[in-house]
């Protein structure tokens, strides 16, 4: 692709109500979208609000909507997303309240993790005490592999911002919280299965998922929340049909 | 937004949430099970249509097959029940997402609509049997 000498960057300014401000940013080799945002804040407009911490794809705090798609800005090279005339459009993450400019409020997102019983509840030590012995969980066991598949989530909310069902129903727990619940349902050391399945059932939970898999498609960690949700549905289907709940 | 927040409690899931979630899960299970029934029933139904019209279609021919036949009665009663419930639950889901029609009242209305639709079908099946 021909490299433009500068980028035309439209940046969301304001909260829920607001408008785009345009900035000209010099184009550089190996430039990430986060570099562009940082340049704008340091050189052009110090009042711009945005969020980042690690800059290397570990913390998940720099996620924004880049040209209509939720991404980690630190791991997104400008040349991969910019169009031929050098235009970039940056918004805060969708499906969340906007604090200011590019910073979304993730509180509803994390509240749903706790609503989905995303906390480990040790079976052997219900009051949080350290169990006497180590639990032996064979790495090749089916449950361990199911848990492993989803355990690397860092809670960046890219899946949540990409989910149509969240947009339609703001009670819906969303892919990340349900993915977390599924890893715990498969954790043989966990004792909260029944409660957790109750918490993730119904219209606010896994049963609203349409399996359109935007979450799986967009997850920067290549996790598969869609399959995790299918797992929850399967568990609830048999438990309900066989009267186990 | 802060008004919708719930503190993370380690105690049991809120009782009314659990009752609601269970009812919703039952609707979902009913829809999946009826989908499985319909997958079979529609095939039987289509094969029946294709084979039945070969010799010309008449009321007498249909009645000669269905009258007094418990197997066809059972088949069509199941078919009608599955179709009525499956359709109504599907419409419920569409209405809840598209126009925000949600809640217990709406669910009961959809269930009634489903059972009524099924009732009409079952009445027709009995009519063909008796």
From TrEMBL, chain A:
Keyword match Transit peptide: no
Domain 2Fe-2S ferredoxin-type, residue spans: 5-94
Keywords in alphabetical order: 4Fe-4S, Iron, Iron-sulfur, Metal-binding, Oxidoreductase
Source organism (scientific name): Neoroseomonas lacus
Keyword Ion transport: no
Name this polypeptide is given: Succinate dehydrogenase iron-sulfur subunit
EC class (word): oxidoreductase
SUPFAM superfamilies, alphabetized: 2Fe-2S ferredoxin-like, alpha-helical ferredoxin
Cofactor(s) needed by this chain: [4Fe-4S] cluster; [3Fe-4S] cluster; [2Fe-2S] cluster
Automatic annotation (TrEMBL), chain B:
Source organism, top-level taxon: Bacteria
Cofactor(s) the protein requires to work: heme
GO cellular component: membrane
Molecular function terms, GO-annotated: metal ion binding
Entry-linked InterPro entries: SQR/QFR_C/D (IPR034804), SuccDH_FuR_B_TM-su (IPR000701)
Record key words, sorted: Heme, Iron, Membrane, Metal-binding, Transmembrane, Transmembrane helix
TM annotation in the entry: 27-53, 73-95, 107-129
Main location: membrane
Record SUPFAM superfamilies: Fumarate reductase respiratory complex transmembrane subunits
Pfam families: Sdh_cyt
Summary of the function given for this chain in its UniProt record: Membrane-anchoring subunit of succinate dehydrogenase (SDH).
Listed name of the protein: Succinate dehydrogenase
Lineage: Bacteria, Pseudomonadati, Pseudomonadota, Alphaproteobacteria, Acetobacterales
